[in-house]
Write a structure and sequence with these properties.
Strands 1-3-2 form a three-stranded antiparallel sheet. A hairpin with a 4-residue loop joins strand 2 and strand 3. The protein is α+β, with helices and mostly antiparallel strands. The longest helix has 18 residues. It contains seven helices and three strands, in the order βααββααααα. Helix content is 50%, strand content 13%.
Length: 169
């Protein structure tokens, strides 16, 4: 960044909604939502505490094609932040109670988006412009809702095992 000793981290992993292809279309988003909910070694509170102690941040966002990884920290804290990002990507806890919360949060955000006219217009435009089967054609909110309601933690684990890792970074 233009600020002395502040580092911005950006990474992309091809693990977006388009990777679901013939599977459950909600799984890529749910897999991304599970990343900041703890690792096998640290729970989400320990991770948040370590980041807060140094004024750093990490976030993940799932798009149509990819998972975006964002981080910001002081240069001196880069090893800590990169280590946390690596642990969250490599060894997420993927606990059933956190999956249930993520699933409800995702369903709630989808239901709320039904009231967003801009989002509905963007969805309609994308579904009109891109033909059936095109990777950039968005799924409807109704399709996402149905998929989210039927999603399982085992599907998230299988997706994570297939798409997350250094070979895809």
């Amino acid at each position: 960044t233009g600020v002395k000793d502040v580092v911005a981290i950006v990474g992309v992993l091809p693990a977006g909604d388009a990777m679901a292809q013939s599977g459950n279309i909600a799984i890529p988003s749910l897999a991304g939502m599970m990343l900041d909910r703890g690792t096998k070694a640290l729970d989400k509170f320990a991770i948040a505490d370590r980041l807060d102690n140094v004024g750093a941040s990490i976030s993940f966002a799932v798009g149509v094609q990819s998972l975006e990884i964002h981080g910001k920290c002081l240069k001196k804290d880069l090893p800590l932040v990169l280590g946390l990002i690596a642990a969250e990507l490599r060894t997420p806890a993927l606990q059933p109670q956190e999956f249930a919360k993520a699933k409800q949060q995702f369903i709630g955000s989808l239901e709320a988006s039904l009231q967003n006219t801009e989002g509905r217009a963007r969805e309609s435009f994308g579904r009109t412009v891109f033909p059936e089967g095109h990777p950039n054609r968005p799924h409807s909110i109704a399709e996402h809702l149905a998929a989210a309601k039927s999603a399982t933690l085992d599907e998230v684990k299988a997706f994570h095992a297939k798409y997350y890792g250094p070979a895809h970074m």
